[in-house]
């Protein structure tokens, strides 16, 4: 049966970084999306969509904006309960807050409980796809994928590989990381809507043998994404230099072990040398921009516009729990503010594209999600433009679609996320009892 949702609608016609904001934005005052089963079959102006599907059931959104579900291309579900940890930069923050919490995920029940909490939070914020780091324990990956599958979400993620410079109970070995990751790929990759991401945490926590094992595993499973961290913090970069004095730089270590190329995703990528910037672009590596985290941990500012202009795919990410918010509105706002500090004002179309289609491209799932387009899965959000008094006042005064989008970026929170659909089914309704 075909169902049609009718209301103001936001989608993208192109990449705004190459086409410009105006050409990239598809805005329909009276729009509609027709959904059959899991997928979108038609999108456009309501009269056209309705006449293309006579007999379909038509539901009005009551003025709520129909938009693509947000895609978060880098975060850590095991860090859900350590969001808002005070006073530390990256390496101290990992040792003080992160590793002790991640150690708890040896307990399958604890992992399952946090996975439920995590997806409640992401869905409440309109994030329909996440790409998460799990802990070194295979139980934590199982909990993540099991919960996602119970909710029928499209997700990516993987077991963190880490065999040094972390507490013994969190460390694996090169061989165990390889074996357990390979078993998880067999169990989860391509099952229902799951993608397995090969996940060496970052250079400081892997021996050369483990990085080599990660490279070998990725060579055997090239359709899996490979995610890790790159040049987030100056002390971290100093440590990498100490551990690998013969490599030209941080990215060079990943290059040496076959961990770069299409499908690789580097979180942060802030303090890059000119060689690293060129190598990122040449190899086809992608970047996950984590602006709330970069601010919160005092890491620095990613040059989004510069990297994107050199051809590096970029997506937007909350990086919870280094990131301070599960909200993609907060994250887009932080990306805007990061740009402002660098003298670059990213338009609301650019910001929103990064949080949807941009992230989907980074994960190489843009055939499935990231935009409202015929053939893609019906992952979408209904946004209440009048969720709070200030939002109502500001959106009522907006003259253009871009003004409405920017008002949402700056002023909206989860109160504006009224309804969330995944694969053609409603998976969250604000205020509904679960
Ligand atoms: N680098 C290595 N691990 C982490 C992590 O968990 N969070 C952040 N923000 N950076 C990292
Ligand atoms: Zn991270």
Automatic annotation (TrEMBL):
Cited InterPro entries: Amidohydro-rel, Guanine_deaminase, Metal-dep_hydrolase_composite, Metal_Hydrolase, Metallo-dep_hydrolases
Cofactor note: Binds 1 zinc ion per subunit.
EC number(s) on file: 3.5.4.3
Record's keyword terms, sorted: Hydrolase, Metal-binding, Zinc
CC cofactor: Zn(2+)
Domain of life assignment: Bacteria
Pathway assigned in UniProt: Purine metabolism; guanine degradation; xanthine from guanine: step 1/1
Molecular function GO terms recorded: guanine deaminase activity; zinc ion binding
GO biological process: guanine catabolic process
Catalyzed reactions: guanine + H2O + H(+) = xanthine + NH4(+)
Domain Amidohydrolase-related: 66-427
One Pfam family named in its UniProt record: Amidohydro_1
Any GO CC annotation of this UniProt entry: cytosol
Record-stated family: Belongs to the metallo-dependent hydrolases superfamily. ATZ/TRZ family.
Functional summary from the UniProt entry: Catalyzes the hydrolytic deamination of guanine, producing xanthine and ammonia.
Name assigned to this protein: Guanine deaminase
Species the sequence originates in: Thermohalobaculum xanthum
């Amino acid at each position: 049966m075909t169902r049609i949702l009718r209301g103001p609608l936001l989608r993208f016609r192109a990449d705004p970084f190459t086409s410009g904001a105006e050409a990239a934005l598809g805005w329909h005052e009276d729009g509609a999306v027709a959904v059959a089963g899991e997928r979108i079959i038609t999108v456009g102006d309501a009269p056209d969509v309705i006449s293309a599907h006579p007999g379909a059931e038509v539901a009005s959104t009551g003025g709520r904006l129909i938009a693509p579900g947000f895609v978060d291309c880098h975060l850590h579900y095991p860090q859900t309960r350590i969001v808002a940890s005070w006073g530390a930069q990256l390496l101290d923050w990992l040792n003080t807050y992160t590793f002790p919490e991640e150690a708890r995920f040896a307990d399958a029940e604890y992992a399952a409980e946090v996975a439920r909490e995590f997806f409640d939070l992401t869905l409440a914020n309109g994030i329909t796809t996440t790409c998460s780091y799990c802990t070194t324990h295979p139980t934590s990956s199982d909990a993540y994928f099991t919960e996602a599958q119970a909710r029928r979400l499209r997700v990516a993620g993987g077991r963190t590989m880490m065999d040094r410079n972390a507490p013994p109970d969190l460390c694996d070995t090169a061989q165990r990381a390889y074996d357990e990751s390979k078993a998880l790929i067999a169990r989860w990759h391509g099952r229902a809507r799951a993608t397995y991401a090969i996940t060496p945490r970052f250079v400081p926590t892997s021996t050369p043998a483990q990085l080599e094992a990660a490279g070998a595993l990725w060579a055997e499973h090239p359709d899996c994404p490979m995610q890790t961290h790159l040049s987030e913090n100056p002390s971290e970069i100093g440590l990498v230099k100490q551990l690998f004095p013969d490599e030209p730089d941080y990215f060079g270590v990943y290059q040496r072990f076959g961990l770069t190329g299409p499908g690789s995703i580097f979180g942060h990528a802030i303090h890059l040398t000119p060689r690293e910037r060129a190598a990122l672009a040449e190899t086809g590596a992608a970047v996950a921009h984590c602006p709330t985290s970069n601010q919160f941990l005092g890491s620095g500012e990613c040059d989004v516009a510069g990297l994107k202009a050199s051809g590096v795919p970029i997506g937007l990410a909350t990086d919870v729990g280094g990131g301070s918010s599960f909200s993609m509105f907060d994250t887009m706002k932080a990306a805007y503010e990061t740009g402002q500090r660098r003298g670059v004002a990213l338009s609301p179309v650019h910001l929103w594209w990064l949080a949807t289609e941009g992230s989907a491209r980074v994960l190489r799932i843009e055939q499935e999600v990231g935009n409202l387009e015929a053939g893609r899965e019906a992952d979408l959000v209904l946004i209440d433009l009048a969720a709070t008094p200030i939002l109502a006042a500001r959106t009522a005064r907006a003259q253009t679609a871009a003004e409405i989008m920017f008002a949402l970026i700056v002023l909206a929170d989860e109160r504006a996320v009224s309804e969330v659909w995944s694969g053609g089914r409603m998976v969250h309704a604000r205020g509904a009892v679960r």
